[in-house]
């Protein structure tokens, strides 16, 4: 009986050489999942194509210099361009798109991030990167810049801090979830949470952020009245 079943199953198999390729639905199967590896390899190739200006169908013009790119990659990684290319805007069919009020280095860095997922942030470029990322609606980058500044708050960075505070208010929901937000001193936290310019869906988001800050260190519980 066992032999007969095996024979019947083998009859349902095609053969390549001596290896049966079974089509029987009862047979076990193995799912191959190499999606992450494929994405990484694909974007590496896309970036190589970009660096060689191969298969590029658009150029970003910044300070009279051009950065070649692929519309499909821009649409997949930068929300600003996804809207531009999919909502039938005039720029959707343009070969060159002018980017105003941003320096070349900033756009180049953000474009490289779109292709590689890597970005070098420093005290000298964090403000321009943050503003550029905000313009392009790259909220993850805005959050990274916010985290970077949170750990480097100092009077000597007054301009950057002022810009950071504005961005912090606009992207409060995202940045307030970062652990570095919970490391802010009491005075800065109170000033931020009481800011009338916070972009939140409801007062509950501010309350939750305050509770997370208080729970971060047990000694902070005595400051609850100052926050809520």
Protein architecture, described:
- The protein is mostly helical and 228 residues long.
- It has a domain at 121-228: Alpha Horseshoe (Serine Threonine Protein Phosphatase 5, Tetratricopeptide repeat).
- It is built from 13 helices and 5 strands.
- It has helices at residues 2-11, 35-51, 71-77, 79-86, 104-116, 126-135, 139-150, 158-170, 172-175, 179-182, 186-193, 203-216, 224-227, and strands at 13-16, 19-22, 58-62, 65-69, 96-98.
- The strands form 2 sheets. The protein has a 3-stranded mixed beta sheet. Strands 1-2 form a two-stranded antiparallel sheet.
- Strand 1 (13-16) and strand 2 form a beta hairpin.
- Helix 5 (104-116) packs across helix 6 (126-135) and helix 7 (139-150) crosses helix 8.
- The relative contact order is 0.07.
Key traits:
Serine Threonine Protein Phosphatase 5, Tetratricopeptide repeat; 228 residues; 5 strands; mainly alpha; 3-stranded mixed sheet; 13 helices; two-stranded antiparallel sheet
Largest sheet: 3 strands, mixed
Number of helices: 13
Helix content: 40-55%
Strand % is 5-15%
InterPro entries: BACK, BTB/POZ_dom, SKP1/BTB/POZ_sf
Keywords: Kelch repeat, Repeat
Domain BTB: 56-123
Protein name: BTB domain-containing protein
Secondary-structure map with pairings?
Layout: H1 2-11, E1 13-16, E2 19-22, H2 35-51, E3 58-62, E4 65-69, H3 71-77, H4 79-86, E5 96-98, H5 104-116, H6 126-135, H7 139-150, H8 158-170, H9 172-175, H10 179-182, H11 186-193, H12 203-216, H13 224-227
Parallel strand pairs: 3-5
Antiparallel strand pairs: 1-2, 3-4
């Amino acid at each position: 009986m066992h032999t007969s079943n095996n024979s019947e199953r083998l009859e349902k198999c095609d053969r390549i050489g001596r290896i049966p390729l079974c089509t029987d639905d009862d047979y076990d199967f193995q799912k191959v999942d190499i999606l992450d590896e494929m994405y990484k390899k694909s974007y590496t190739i896309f970036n190589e194509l970009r660096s060689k200006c191969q298969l590029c169908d658009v150029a970003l013009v910044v300070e009279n210099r051009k950065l070649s790119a692929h519309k499909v990659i821009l649409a997949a990684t930068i929300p600003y361009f996804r809207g531009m290319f999919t909502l039938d805007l005039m720029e959707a069919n343009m070969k060159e798109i002018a980017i105003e009020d941003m320096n070349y280095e900033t756009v180049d860095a953000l474009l490289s991030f779109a292709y590689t997922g890597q970005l070098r942030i420093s005290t000298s470029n964090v403000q321009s990167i943050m503003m550029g990322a905000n313009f392009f609606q790259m909220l993850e980058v805005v959050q990274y810049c916010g985290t970077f500044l949170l750990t480097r708050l100092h009077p000597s960075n007054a301009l950057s801090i002022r810009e950071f505070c504005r961005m912090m208010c606009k992207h409060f929901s995202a940045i307030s979830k970062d652990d570095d937000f919970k490391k802010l001193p009491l005075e800065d936290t109170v000033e931020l949470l009481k800011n009338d310019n916070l972009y939140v869906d409801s007062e509950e988001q501010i309350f939750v952020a305050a509770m997370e800050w208080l729970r971060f260190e047990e000694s902070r519980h005595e400051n609850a009245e100052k926050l809520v």
